[in-house]
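note to self: dont lose this again. the chain is below, predicted strucutre after it. 272 aa total, dont forget to put it in the shared folder this time
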Amino acid sequence: MRSTNARKSIFLTQRLVLWIGIGLLLIESIAHAEMGAIERIEWDKTPIRLDLKVGEERWVHFPGSVKVGLPASLQPLLRTQSVNGTVYFLASAPFDTTRIMLRTLDGGPLYLFDVSASETGGQSHPLRLFVKEAGKSREDPAAPPVARDVSTVNYSYVALTRFAAQQLYAPARLLRDLPGIVRVPVTRDPVSLLRGGMVDATPLVAWRAGGLFVTALKLTNRTDRPQILDPRDLRGTWLTATFQHNRLLAAGSEADTTAVYLISARPFAASR
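---
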């Protein structure tokens, strides 16, 4: 009996260590996805959200040189420098979301940004904007070559889900763009995604591939009990839903967080 109990204790300890390792990997991977390589965003006339952290400079690269139109209310709080198509944003104090305009100097589009700053939140990774023109994208000619949209490339649900998971989990040296898959804006405000209110959901990143959209969200258990994730509890209209892990441990544990990948026929905001 004593031997059996010892084996059970060892088994439970091994399982706990495994879950802790998975949780640490997820946390590290999500942080890397938010702070790693340049985020490419297509300008489709939708105002782009730019969250800043006070005291940390953030870069935004444009297809050409731009002039920043900064409201008077932000001038004491936000420093902007526009140099050869790159704008450097540095907030010196927190401020609420404020819309600013950036005008292209060569007659190109007028960009709109909803900018905010906080002491503890905000993002630090650079952004690169591109504009599609007559079936191609207009980007900074000095920028390194990137994969172009290829309308004839069709991806399966499995391939799109695998691509999204790799963007969150794979080391930076293994990440690469795929033809026809482009980053699209998605709000990072928490959403009510799973019924029951037991699990918080926060969008992380979204892509478009032809007529499909794939969105990755972070899921966090908000209760003191483990939660089993069931796609039938998801709100919204989704073609597929894939959980990175289908079980969350209690809030505060190392394995209380995972990711879900949603594929839809419309953008995330219109599908939920």
